[in-house]
Design goal:
By secondary structure, this protein is α+β, with helices and mostly antiparallel strands. The chain has two domains: about 70-345, archaeoglobus fulgidus dsm 4304 fold, CATH 3.30.2170; about 350-380, no CATH class. The protein has twelve helices and 13 strands. The chain has helices at about 5-10, 15-40, 40-50, 145-165, 195-215, 230-235, 255-260, 310-315, 315-330, 340-345, 350-365, 375-380, and strands at about 60, 70, 80-90, 95, 100-110, 120-125, 175-180, 215-220, 265-270, 270, 285-295, 300-310, 375. A hairpin with a 6-residue loop joins strand 5 (about 100-110) and strand 6 (about 120-125). Helix 4 runs parallel beside helix 5. This is NurA domain-containing protein. It comes from Rhodothermus profundi. InterPro entries: NurA_domain.
């Protein structure tokens, strides 16, 4: 139960503090825009990055001009769009025997045609330890949240690839979409390099299958929090020199920067991510991204980050197709791609379904003469006494 009286005391001064932070952010934004406009030679800037060797993640521009702005073309009249999203029920240490559930929602739209929409939910129940031997080692006593999340991401990509193969039409362009990042950030939380590399290679192998099938795959990140491009500007301003400027751009995000640089329907140039995880990706599959200004409700645009493997980025017509599809889907989805929203609806596991999942497990075990054990704490949380 929340004590609002005590909370109110802590909220005093909140608005004042936020206004101070907003004013400071505006100063940083003005400085960033000045630096952005002043940069000319990208090659010289990259040499400056090499000399400085900053500890921050720094974007690598792939074009000749940093200030590139591209107007997204109209979407083709007919196009096949497939999307996938995933959810899970994590292993619960209060429940025996151990198990977990992955669920992928996948959808296919044949846009510009009268062909029916395909909406599916694909569950995968995991309980056999031998099925996980490839991604477990002796030091892992149980399946961690990070492992389940990595397996879910693989499952999403597998199902997306399978669906794309099933619904593609000769002569009709095809786009495959995911929500979230293609960079395996969570893998590094395992703190076990051999296992981390194994997971990354499994994921890259799936990207390679998309490449062989010539299916452009991309991911969409709403309200991204990255600052790799801003960090590039920090290098240009000399923030990693012995005599840095008094005002640092630290805390400013790429999203805020491009909100002042792009008009709705425009995208930025292409950037190669500076993530160290990229070193484990084969070069064609290293992740490239662009920032896209998409229209939202009440005339408010949002800056989204769109990621794709480098082999996709090297095909300008694929980049144009992906952005055109996303832009149109955001118009239909009131600021968020409708196809991804539909995939999420197919994937999400709500509280009643979670309870039904455990009830189903218990009933199945009972029929086999086995009791499902739950801790007293778990039982108490499910059946409060007051």
């Amino acid at each position: 139960m929340l004590d609002f009286v005590r909370l109110q005391q802590q909220l005093q001064g909140f608005a004042t503090y936020q206004q101070q932070q907003r004013d400071l952010l505006q100063e940083k934004l003005a400085a960033a825009l000045d630096t952005w406009r002043a940069i000319g030679d990208v090659g010289e800037l990259l040499e400056q990055v090499e000399r400085a060797r900053p500890s921050w993640l720094v974007a690598r521009p792939l074009g000749e001009r940093l200030q590139t702005r591209v107007t997204v073309p109209e979407r083709p009249a007919q196009v096949t769009v497939v999307a996938a999203d995933g959810s899970q029920i994590f292993p619960d240490r209060h429940v025996e025997p151990p198990c977990f559930l992955l669920n992928v929602g996948r959808v296919a739209f044949q846009l510009g045609t009268h062909e029916p929409v395909r909406l599916e939910s694909i569950p995968r129940f995991c309980f056999r330890r031998e099925e996980l031997q490839e991604v477990l080692d002796e030091r892992l006593a149980s399946v961690s949240v990070e492992i389940v999340s990595a397996l879910r991401d693989e499952f999403e990509l597998e199902e997306l690839l399978q669906l794309a193969r099933e619904v593609r039409r000769d002569g009709r362009p095809l786009v495959a979409l995911l929500d979230g990042t293609l960079i395996r950030w969570m893998i590094r939380r395992l703190h076990q390099r051999e296992l981390e590399e194994r997971f990354i290679q499994r994921y890259v192998c799936l990207l390679e299958q998309f490449q062989k099938a010539r299916i452009p795959v991309a991911s969409y990140i709403s309200m991204p929090g990255g600052a790799e491009v801003v960090n590039l500007l920090r290098v240009a301003r000399g923030e990693c020199t012995p005599d840095p400027p008094a005002l640092s751009l630290d805390g400013l995000t790429d999203r805020l920067l491009f909100a002042h640089l792009l008009q709705p329907g425009e995208r930025s140039g292409l950037f190669l991510s500076g993530s160290h995880i990229q070193q484990a990706y084969a070069d064609p599959h290293r992740i490239v991204y662009t920032y896209l200004s998409v229209p939202g409700p009440y005339g408010q645009a949002e800056i989204a980050r769109v990621e794709f493997p480098r082999w996709v980025a090297e095909q300008p017509e694929w980049v144009a197709l992906i952005c055109a599809v996303l832009l149109k889907e955001c118009v239909k989805g009131n600021g968020y791609p409708m196809v991804l929203a539909e995939a999420h609806e197919q994937a999400v596991i709500r509280a009643p379904e979670r309870e039904a999942f455990y009830e189903l497990i218990g009933r199945q075990l009972w029929r086999g003469g086995i009791a499902m054990e739950q801790s007293r704490k778990q039982t108490s949380k499910r059946r409060p006494v007051l």
